[in-house]
Design goal:
It comes from Streptococcus danieliae. By secondary structure, the chain is α+β, with helices and mostly antiparallel strands. The chain contains three helices and five strands.
């Protein structure tokens, strides 16, 4: 397989590991968007969150809070962003499921994530919520 993260799991490519168990591996991202930027991945290959097995998802997301606390304590971070990009349109560049843990150190730490705010259209939101509730999950 020509997957960068699978090669890291197999030991073919070096990584700065911060956590490992039978199912999960966490290592420092080489980009270091902020100091301590960590990727948490399942060792088994899944393209992204849409393909992720529920039991593997439980193991993957189950490690996130503890790793976040470790990053906060070890690095003196004030907070953390937890990000998953699934599919190219969402910014996914490595097609192996992964969660980004981005320690935050203040407004000047080099990472700027903002959401546009606007007056809410509650009727539209109610219609959207209903559509989502009525949609059955495709497996």
């Amino acid at each position: 397989m020509d997957c960068l993260f699978c090669k890291i799991v197999a030991g073919e490519i070096p990584a700065s590991k911060v956590y490992e168990d039978e199912q999960i591996l966490a290592f420092l991202d080489i980009s270091q968007a902020t100091p301590g930027h960590t990727l948490v991945i399942p060792k088994e290959h899944y393209r992204n969150i849409f393909d992720l097995d529920p039991q593997v998802a439980q193991a993957l997301f189950g490690q996130v809070p503890g790793l976040a606390r470790r990053l906060k304590q070890a690095l003196g971070a004030e907070g953390i962003n937890v990000i998953n990009n699934s599919e190219e349109v969402a910014g996914q560049t490595v097609f192996h499921t992964h969660i980004h843990l981005l320690p935050r150190f203040g407004q000047e730490d080099g990472l700027d994530i903002r959401f546009q705010t606007q007056e809410p259209d509650f009727e539209h939101l109610a219609q959207l919520a209903q559509k989502i509730r009525e949609t059955t999950e495709e497996v």
